[in-house]
Amino acid sequence: MTEQQILDTVNLEEPWGLIESFATFKREHPKDVNRGMDEVVSRLQRHGVDVKVHHPDLYLSVPGQARVEANGRTIRAKPPAYSTDARGGLAGRLVYLGANQADDIDMIFDRRLDDGSAAAAGARGAIVISEGYASPGMIAQFEEMGAIGVIAINPGIDIHWGICTTIWGVPDLDDLPRKPTIPSVAVNNPDGQALIEIAKAGGEVTLFTEMEEGWFASKLPEVFIPGTEDPEKYVLLHGHLDSWDVGVGDNATGDAALLEIARVLWKHRGSLKRSVRIAWWPGHSTGRYAGSTWFADQFAIDLEENCVAQVNCDSPGCRWATEFINLSRMSETDAFITKVITEVAGKTAKGERPHRAGDYSFNNIGISSYFMLSSTMPDALREEKGYYAVGGCGGNIAWHTENDTIEIADKDILLRDIKVYLLAVLRTANSHVLPFDWRATTREFLSTIDGYQKKAGDRFDLTPSRAAAEELLVAIEEFYKDVEDGRVTAPQANRVIQELARILVPINFTREPRFRHDPAVTIPPLPTLSVAAELDQHDVNTMGFAQTQLMRGQNRVVSALRQAKRHIADVCG
Prior knowledge:
Layout: H1 3-7, H2 13-22, H3 30-46, E1 52-54, E2 57-70, E3 73-77, E4 86-96, H4 105-109, H5 117-123, E5 127-131, H6 136-144, E6 149-153, E7 184-187, H7 189-200, E8 204-217, E9 220-225, E10 230-240, H8 248-267, E11 274-281, H9 290-298, H10 300-306, E12 307-312, E13 327-328, H11 334-345, E14 351-352, E15 369-370, H12 379-385, H13 411-430, H14 438-456, H15 463-485, H16 490-509, H17 543-572
Parallel strand pairs: 4-5, 5-6, 6-7, 10-11, 10-12, 12-15, 13-14
Antiparallel strand pairs: 1-9, 2-3, 2-8, 4-8, 9-11
Helix pairs in contact: 2-8, 8-13, 11-13, 14-15, 15-17, 16-17
């Protein structure tokens, strides 16, 4: 069948039915998440789709009630997942450390103060209050300063749930030292302003948090739709099913999109060349992507050998989400997904570097990736409504609140977004040569290196990195020309394109070794070179240490770039 014929079989009967059902029950606690998983499985089986259900045990943190007591007043609060339990109350001096509110998704999860050294003395032994979400970066930074508790002031009148650990997925022994050891809560802006005044007056507060933490039996459904020509190779399409409250825009709409794509592709599986693997994750919200991390660990070698791309589906089909801006994609996928979005939606996509978020649990394996959050509202509309930056729901500030109910979903936008995802996955699975352009990524490397060199000045020489990137670009340009001219066969080309991902994605998105997981904080481009942009922060006492770190980081980058060049030569002769 043609692409258009397959797209024309998409309808909203099953996906909207799932959304209507999910809008009636919360999916925070694992028992409720498992109920949602059972419904997805049942709906798939009703259409004859073969579903395998995995049963991982995941270490999760489920928030309960919280409050702040101050000056005889009780203030409503929400604890983030991985806060410690303080149901008996934690009293302490309240200290205000001001920070700018997050104005983009990166800052939502990152550290709150650029230089916390001056504030550390005031934070030690105190409960710190500051603007922002109760995010991994905020809690880790204030805990490092010696704070005994944290109150995060959310931007508006609502309080947003979240998770405060920097640990990605289930901790291992090396991760455990980063597990938060202090209680934290979020409050709304009006209450936060009142608490700031108490802090300025030298007052005290008491935090109360109720947490349920431990190992939980979880369910993880997977649909494997076999291709007809190269069935061992596959596209991994995935999204999280657990949500805060009923979580319609984040992520019942995504679960519904996956359901419909699974139904359609299963029905037309005879039209697939490569396979498509579709999964619904538990533990996204209460385990910092525990479900996708479990999958990445459990199937690491198979993913390394056979996964040609991973595609995340989070918050599609939300009201007012008419645009495709701030769209996560790795550079090699940019031209490909831009064309798909133009064809389906008639929109110009504006891509950006993927954030360290959103079930991107496969960077250390080295897999080309596109999509995370889906369509979103235009900036002008967001400004008109007075909305602040959030991490989902198409830009609706109902994100991670009780207000993320069924009116956040939009049928017409959902239908369009399902077709965008479907066509992108279908084309990746069916392309004769994988549709990823490593010339774009290598040019990104050159731009990154030039930017770092400009900031480093004469304090460090990144010439070896630039030379290796230039040589790789020449080799990659020759490779694609040979592919176009037929001197490189499709099997050879696909092998090179996949293996370049295994080499180049990790050096651009990770610091940790392969098959481990970096912390859930922002990772800059070519991260082992990023110290070059921070040399102004070092004096004579620490400059030598920074330069030593840069030398080691440059060795990693140069080695990988040369390895990539050799790989092209080895495969293509």
